[in-house]
Amino acid sequence: MKDGDPQETVSVLKDGLFKGKGAVVSGAGTGIGRGIVTRLVGLGMDVTGLGRREEPLAETAEAVKEMPGSFRYQSCNVRDIEALEAAIEEAGETHGIDLLVNNAGGQFFAPATEISRRGWDAVIDLNLSAIFTATKAAYPYLKSRRGAVVNMSLSGVERGSMGLAHSIAARSGVLGMTRSLALEWAGDGIRLNCLGPGTVVTSGLSDEAARALLDGLLAATPMHCETSVEEVAELTAFLASPAGRLMTGQLIQIDGGAHIGAGLHMIGAA
Ligand SMILES: CCC/C=C/C(=O)SCCNC(=O)CCNC(=O)[C@H](O)C(C)(C)COP(=O)([O-])OP(=O)([O-])OC[C@H]1O[C@@H](n2cnc3c(N)ncnc32)[C@H](O)[C@@H]1OP(=O)([O-])[O-]
Ligand SMILES: NC(=O)C1=CN([C@@H]2O[C@H](COP(=O)(O)OP(=O)(O)OC[C@H]3O[C@@H](n4cnc5c(N)ncnc54)[C@H](OP(=O)(O)O)[C@@H]3O)[C@@H](O)[C@H]2O)C=CC1
């Protein structure tokens, strides 16, 4: 997004859409998570943000304080099962859960031969098991509101990506879980989808060392463009809106065609 207010440029949803609705967003202090919170609160939602560090969460709170909805936050390591369950329950009791966005995640880039079992377990825990815990804990609240779940995945998750064996395995697991729960909970009116952003230049991918990597990712993207935080946020909000009523069990890739291109790889072939 180069011109004007980036959110303004991609905003298609109507003001006040989520008045009286509630959401939980993990990884809410930075990058994509902060962008999602900003859009949801802008549309009138009451949102609880989770993340380990309080400072970025407080910055998100500052950024949205004049907006129509509300934002509260809680420091929570999503890999701590009891803390995560308690945080979801507190949010559910405070404002209800019409939308759960499992966005917290991350990994390191390494060839499989350099991933130790502990490294593998850490990435699976953060990017798969924590999502199961959050989603299961949110179930009663989602059920009472006929709510939606959006799980942040990666572009190309179905084709594989060199340097990301652990993360792709976790996110493929999330896709399988998403489709299974979409079946199990369809009768409750709960919808679950995965979003696969392409390259989003957030703090995780913005330093000098990441520049060469970024150039390679953009070259491998048929539309040769980054995905903006605002585009991911608008699509997330759409999936929670009445217009997304029949959308469930899907992986929606918002990536300038990256998933049909040469592949987004974080290391070269051996
Ligand atoms: C297309 C776009 C792609 C996506 C972009 C983004 O996601 S942007 C967002 C990007 N931002 C982020 O992703 C940031 C968030 N990422 C993280 O916090 C970590 O990567 C984490 C998920 C592993 C955290 O787990 P934790 O706190 O439990 O970590 P820990 O320190 O305790 O280590 C556990 C094990 O992992 C091992 N290990 C670690 N690094 C490497 C390495 N480079 N190489 C090999 N191994 C590595 C470490 O050695 C240890 O194993 P050991 O030696 O005991 O056998
Ligand atoms: N940027 C990109 O190009 C792409 C990103 N994604 C995915 O989108 C999601 C957001 O990424 P992005 O905004 O770019 O990256 P960031 O690194 O900015 O965001 C990750 C967020 O997750 C939080 N987080 C990480 N670990 C934990 C934990 N154990 N408990 C609670 N919160 C945690 C972090 O907060 P804190 O450290 O304070 O806990 C941070 O706010 C991730 O799942 C990422 O893999 C997908 C495709 C492309």
Topology of helices and strands:
Layout: H1 6-10, E1 22-26, H2 31-42, E2 46-51, H3 54-64, E3 70-75, H4 81-95, E4 99-102, H5 117-145, E5 148-152, H6 165-184, E6 191-197, H7 208-219, H8 229-240, E7 250-254
Parallel strand pairs: 1-2, 1-4, 2-3, 4-5, 5-6, 6-7
Helix pairs in contact: 2-3, 2-8, 4-5, 5-6
Bound molecules: (2E)-Hexenoyl-CoA and NADPH dihydro-nicotinamide-adenine-dinucleotide phosphate (NDP).
Question: What low-confidence regions span 5 or more consecutive residues with pLDDT below 50?
Answer: none
What is the overall number of helices? 8
The biggest sheet amounts to:
7 strands, parallel
Shape: globular
CATH class: Alpha Beta
CATH superfamily: NAD(P)-binding Rossmann-like Domain
Got a strand count?
Answer: 7
Domain tally: 1
- State the helicity in percent bands: 40-55%
What is the distance, rounded to the nearest whole angstrom, between the alpha carbons of the first and last residues?
Answer: 35 Å
Average pLDDT for all residues? 96
CATH topology: Rossmann fold
* Oligomerization state: single chain
Structural class designation: alpha/beta
Strand order, main sheet: write it out: 3-2-1-4-5-6-7
